[in-house]
Amino acid sequence: MPWHRRPPYQRRALPVTARGASMKTAADYRAMAEECFEWARETQTDEVRASYLKLAEVWLNYASKLDGLPPTRTPPALETD
Fold this sequence. Notes:
Layout: H1 26-42, H2 46-67
Helix pairs in contact: 1-2
């Protein structure tokens, strides 16, 4: 099952480099950050939203370390009722 179809609690938080497992690319990390931004927009609670945004920041930082580019993605404005 691809990583993006698993619930967040079933995903690996960090790439595994030992024992032959492949590492993720910067593009993979940026895609995971985008998914976190999407979840942040969809969630109903501020606490969960903040957690997803923080996780997106972590993924962008990992991507930045791999590709040397700044973690420049700005989260979209959240809709408020």
